[in-house]
Amino acid sequence: MPIHADHPERERAFALPLEQIDVSKGYLFEQDLVGFYFERLRRDDPVHHAVSKRFGPYWSVTRYADIMAVDTNPAVFSSDSRLGGISLSERPPEEMFPSFIAMDPPRHDEQRKAVSPIVAPANLARLQGLIRERAARILDGLPVGVEFDWVPRVSIELTTQMLATLFDFPFEQRRLLTWWSDMATGDPDGNGPVRSWTQRLEELGKCRDHFTRLWNERVNAEPRSDLISMLAHSPATRDMDPDAFLGTLILLIVGGNDTTRNSISGGVLALNEHPHEYDKLRADPALVDSLVPEIIRWQTPLAHMRRTAVADAELGGKTIRKGDKVVMWYLSGNRDERAIVDADRFVVDRARPRQHLSFGFGIHRCVGNRLAEMQLTILWQEILKRFPRIEVTGTPVRTRSNFVRGFVSLPVVIPERRA
Fold it and tell me: Which of 32, 178, 208, 397 has its CA at a distance of 20 to 30 angstroms from the CA of residue 191?
């Protein structure tokens, strides 16, 4: 996110009347300009009421402490899909697919518990060697001295291979998982593959049908350690209706794919934009341990989460009314200088690198956060063994989305391999 004090978009952000600021516009994220507007709101109106032509009225919560207050109070700020769910974008009820991230206790707790064994310490230890083997194979297959797109060759490939393993999904069909992830998070106004809401529904229907076949195979078999078997055998999830099954699939696919893949790309870009930090990392590869959470903070792969107030509440001196839409801008909270020292700097040896909001807090804290960190850690360890530098050679293409903060493409070149 640019921090140049003399950037013309920053001047515009600070000159615009507050009532005209609407940070939900996709182009602000695609062009990486939204940070200037968050900076203005954090300073002048940290709990800001906006009216979007597309999304209607909503509250923007932009400071770290206020975001924490919302995220840790599910009794007042609900995630329930029946009230609108977790994102600014709202679809008709027939297009809302419930999952435990869009539920309140106790249903949330019961369904989350069904899949949590996938990231138990013993299972993570079992996956560690497999991730390293795959990362090494992917990196060893990259060209040297030739420009290529980092997003499909590395970011998507590594995370999709892991996702196929977590689901025990047919490995040769794994790119279907990438496709369905892009369908689930995209919309026709974005720059991804979604061309219409009808197309999106049709493709997600194919996702449900495909996984239903896997479910039917595993529900009558002995329990196994993959996600579909866990869902099929847990009392909390084995009787899900088709919409709830699809909603849970979408959550697990996106959670296991989009966030990690965009942090992988974001890390390469951040180190290129901060060459002194790249020098520090190369001089001391042990800094990977603090680099990884710093990448996750800096990238903030999910820019926001939405809640709906189920009672009147006060937040940052403003009165939130029952029924109001409240948006926690994690991306802004991760740049809040009141909570994070030098928040606008990318620092590979940051003293408290895990002080960030990217995984959320409270009952909805990301269930796969340790797996995401492990994948990134192993990948960067293997990168540093092989390549003195990965150079970004062109302008990255970012997603036109206020929800998934990611990359469509990132052109790079690897000048040389280590001897």
Answer: 208
